[in-house]
Amino acid sequence: MNEARISLVCCTQVLLQDIGAKESRQKDIALTYAMAIRSESCGDDKPDWKTINEAILRDGSYAACIASRILRGKSILARSTHEPASTRGRGKG
Known about the structure:
Layout: H1 11-20, H2 26-41, H3 49-58, H4 60-82
Helix pairs in contact: 1-2, 1-3, 2-4
């Protein structure tokens, strides 16, 4: 059976737009960043990580928080694609 997969394309442009938007939340940028990582690993896009990371670092208020949220975003994406729907959102224990 084929599994449905959602990929982000034009990752660099999407992330740069999000980083530059005043209404963007750090959580949103981190989840988009995690989706870009996933899209690259699937071969669906080739983000310009140097440009993206430089944009994040230019705004010091983003850098530290986004780094931790990226890890959280990757965890959320991993769970949402590898766990059965019946176990999502439940604690481990």
